[in-house]
Amino acid sequence: MTDSGEVLKIGLVGGLSFPSTITYYDRINRLVNRRLGKSHSPRIVLESLDFQPMMEWIARRDGVAVAREIAAAASRLETSGADFFAICCNTVHEYAGLIEERTALPLVNICRATAQEAARREVSTVGLLGSAFSMEEAFYRDEFTAEGIKVVVPEPPDRAFMQDAIERELCTGDVSRTTCERFTRIARDLLKAGTEALVLACTEVPLVIRAEEFDVPVIDTVDVHTAAIVERALTPFMEHT
Q: Are the beta carbons of 77 and 105 closer than 8 angstroms?
């Protein structure tokens, strides 16, 4: 479709979890409408998956099962006319390489887009807040290292608490005040450790951490990712106008 200058059709793999998928759909539509005006909206096709088996595969580090499920979803998106796709979840990007090996549909990678945004803001150290997998595994850290940025994560007890809260509360959208307060305290501890910016590296974490509560840049990976998705979709159209 790029040769005709049309807005590209966006493919989303969602359900990981469903509250964040709703956020993706809303923000992408608002961003496109803001750019194009009138009553314009993007063409989107969604594959919404069951998050429970995905969480079980991730917990036992079964990357092949994760990649197989998401690549199959990408194949269905391609059949439905998607020109590229994005996964509405940070954690499964641990297996982005395996996923890309199994599909020809181009992937907009949330980790890479986020590291590039941090570099654009000229920060040298970031505090990473996300699932235990995002904080402990190398897939996010490697992207920041490639940009010359140091990553600091919470202490082990806080990482364990965050993972449990994400699974039990944030993924269902039912979050207690106590959980919100502890997330805020964890974020402030990272600032005391010398971080120059906070990265909300879980699509549900913005439900409990508000940028306006901090006097440093707060990089919401959903904001960054949706902006990158929209830019990818609109580039051919904008080049022909």
A: yes
pLDDT one-digit tens code per residue, 211-226:
999 999 999 999 999 9
Sign of CA dihedral 123, 166, 51, 12: negative
Question: Rounded distance, CA 110 to CA 131, Å?
Answer: 14
CB neighbours of residue 194 within 10 Å:
11
Distance CA 84, CA 105 (A): 5
Task: Give whole-number Cα distances, 191 to 66, 126, 186, in Å.
Answer: 34, 9, 9
Average pLDDT value for residue range 15-22: 90
| Whether pLDDT at 3 is above 50 | no
Average pLDDT of the chain, as a whole number: 93
Distances 175 to 27, 83, 202, 203, 212 between C-alpha atoms, Å: 22, 36, 15, 14, 19
What is the H or E stretch that residue 48 is in? strand 44-48
Answer whether residue 241 shows pLDDT above 70. no
Beta strands at 84-87 and 10-14: parallel, antiparallel or unpaired: parallel
